Amino acid sequence: MVETGHVPDGLRQLTYQPGPAAPGPIELLTFAGFRRVDRALRTRPQRPDFDVLALVREGTGRLRVDFDDTALVPRTIAWIRPGQVNQWIDIEDLDGDLVLFSTAAVAFTADPPACWTVPDPAWRLVTLAADHLRAEYDAAPTGPILADLLTVLLRRATADQPQAPEHRDDLARRFRAAVETDLGSGRRRSVAEHAAALGYSARTLDRAVTRATGVSAKSYLDQRVHLEARRMLAHSALSVAVCARHLGFPDAANFSAFFTRLSGTTPGRWRHQATADVPRPATTAPERSDT
User: Fold this and answer.
1) What are the DSSP E strand ranges found in 137-247?
2) b (16+ CB within 10 A) / e for 225-250
3) Which of 20, 80, 231, 250 is the most exposed place for a label (fewest CB within 10 A)?
4) Contact of 90 with 53, CB cutoff 8 Å
5) End-to-end Cα, the chain, rounded Å
6) Which pLDDT tens digit goes with each residue over 76-131?
7) Is residue 7 located within the same domain as residue 115?
8) 17 domain residue, yes or no
């Protein structure tokens, strides 16, 4: 069950909250069921603190995840991670499955994009795994077997996608977790400061992060702060100075210089363009009746 958390400056925050019908860390829905949610709510940008796995079996639609728009077509899989800002722009013609789960529900890591299409021969195995999960969920919506079957589904869904190498490197995983903690607390540390806190040299940390992510520790850190800055600018009315403070910058000028270096434009100009480009769900077509 999902409940709406606080809504700071218009961004809908979603928290995973188990309910009587789904008391465990895994909940299954369909697009037909999702369409019963008030349209004004489900088409707004939202930021869940849990994973959402979507399998499109039939129909077409659109999904935006952190500024990237994707066309949803049959055999599309979307995996929205905790903290990613997403917007279901159009789901009126979609049939398929939605799996909501807390990250702790499964011990599985992969590094696919937010959306991808599964080749036709493999799709049958994906849907078989999804159908098995659904059958067990309908019989008993909690218990360890659901986590096992969800792991199978995730493995099938990501079989042709890059697998996350960081599960073999605990240092990279700890660094990424520390970056997320800092972003949530308004603290900003350099790579050297992170390395010292983790008990390693900056060079050792950089090698570990490069192996796990394909970019240097400094690049990863800058890209992650830049993404959070764009989320704030696009989805809130916070001033540039307040955004800078939330992200741990000493002042607005320092933040603006950082943002301009990575974006090629100032925070104010980027915000103006981003808000002008926000997709609007179509309002002319009637919603499907799912009975």
Assistant:
1) none
2) bbbbbbbbbbbbebebeebbbbbebe
3) 20
4) no
5) 22
6) 999 999 999 999 999 999 999 999 999 889 988 777 889 999 999 999 999 999 99
7) yes
8) yes
